[in-house]
Amino acid sequence: MSSQTQAHHHLQKLNLLTQTGADTDMGRLLRQFWHPIALAKDLDAGQAMPVRILNEELTLYRGDSGRPYLVGGRCRHRQTVLHTGWVQGERIRCMYHGWQFAGDGRCTERPAEQETTPPAIANIAAHAVHEYGGLIFAWLGEGEAPEFNLPRKDCLEKDGVIVVATKESWRINWFQQIENSLDATHVSFVHQTLRVASFGEMVTNAIPELSYSETEAGIEQTARRGPGNVRKSNWTFPNNNHVVVPGLAKDDPWIDFVIWMVPADDEHSTRFTLYAFKPENDEQKQRFLGQFEKYGQYNADDHYDELFHHRRGPVEGDVIGLISAQDYLAQRGQGIIADRSLELLGRSDLGIMTLRRIFWREMQALRDKQPIKAWRKRELPLELPTQPGKQEATLAE
Ligand code: FES
Ligand SMILES: [Fe+2]
Questions:
Q1: pLDDT value at position 380?
Q2: Which three-class secondary structure state does DSSP give residue 6?
């Protein structure tokens, strides 16, 4: 291959990582997995909302029974958006000329067509949904949805755990965020910027020694910053990361931080984060819930100017927002879609290379009409160390 052809080939491979439409390799791959699409608390029974995921427009609604349904974004008749319509029982009716659809996409009524049964050609798309951990998940593949198992986390299902879910929308391609979660070195720099909170103090600015290994569920990442300062993260294919972060007060138990980074389209992504906390007493519980009540709305992308032009982060005390603002600065600073053809990777980028190789391998399998790896929830609990010097970690995945 000439060096020009090689460069072109490399660029094509890089583009595969960032394009998620239905007719792209990554789009086909991601459609084999469950993804969160909404916070459960944002959707009341009898309400509908638009959802944008993987370059598709969809309508999410909850029937009067409370059950969620995900159908096409637009009415089959004249293509107005469906979420502006009426939810009636378990169905939704378009506000334009009253066509009605069931949760499985079937058109059940066309009032002005003078017919008893609408033809199948009037049906719209429908997708499987599943509620878990305060989130509504969807599966956008073809055929039967797989069992809802890979996204489950033991830390969310333990007795006495309280879970808070947040959602952020960033104008950035999804893959930058995935790469960042497998870049343990960034923690030593990014989380020291704007202001150093307990997370930055705990991790320190020491350069970690890194190791990565592929597991049945994804990638296990280990960052060693010295004896007793070992940080592990449990990354699950294709877009979830699980780490632990310090509690809100010095002696509070640590918090499980579980995040999904989902493409809305190629220039926007949605971050769904679950914070799971097991309080030892009521004071810790109130502190935790109070934190989210007070600050849980911070969306870094709404503060672009403040962050980039004035270097001003969220208010003092909003530690969760601060972590997010720091990560946003680094990743949004790469551009909406980072130009990876210009990057210069080194040994600290081992996680990023590991990650890309796995994605390229899986996309190649799909292209070759071969099965992809049977990704499944980890059987062995992964110890996620909680504090430097405390080897007897108490929080486990
Ligand atoms: S556009 Fe929906 S009924 Fe006409
Ligand atoms: Fe980070």
A1: 72
A2: helix
* Measured distance CA(360)–CA(54) in Å, rounded: 18
145, part of any domain: no
pLDDT tens for 217-228 read 999 999 998 887
- Ligand 2: centre distance to CA 232 (Å): 13
Q: Which of 80, 82, 93, 123 to mutate to test the pocket of ligand 1 (most atoms within 8 A of CB)?
A: 80
**CA 79 – ligand 1 centroid, Å:** 7
Closest ligand 1 atom to the C-alpha of 78?
1
Could you tell me if 51 and 182 lie in one domain? no
Pairwise CA distance, residues 259 & 165, whole Å = 10
> 217 with 111, same domain?
no
99 lines ligand 1 (CB under 6 A): yes
Do 222 and 319 belong to one domain?
yes
**Atom nearest to 94 CA in ligand 1:** 2
Name the pLDDT band for 394 (thresholds 50, 70, 90): very low
Q: For residue 75, give its domain range.
A: 34-139
